[in-house]
Amino acid sequence: MIEIENLNAWFGENHVLKDVSLKVPTNGSFGLVGESGSGKSTVLRTMTGLVDDWEGIMVVGNHELARKRNKDFYRQVQMVFQDPFGSLHPRHTIDRILSEPVAVHGLGNSGCPRDPRA
Fold it and tell me: pTM value?
């Protein structure tokens, strides 16, 4: 399902990922563990297209990831950040937070009943 080979990434002059390789089989589980600052989030940010300066091979579902991701990719893969205070706007309702990606990607009615009180 996911395969990364010799992934390297840079933030400016800083070489932040060095020769990272991993495989996650279809229907498999994978835990990425390391100290704070070891690059766990950077690997995922690079996979999701949030880091531009990288080299290596990244394959998701038998499709090699290009430097620029297309809209179809973002419909299927998105980053979920660990810090809820940095990820979720405290003044937005859950309905607004969850419906925004649906609207952005033009997916229309998700089939979820809407609470008239929202």
Answer: 0.67
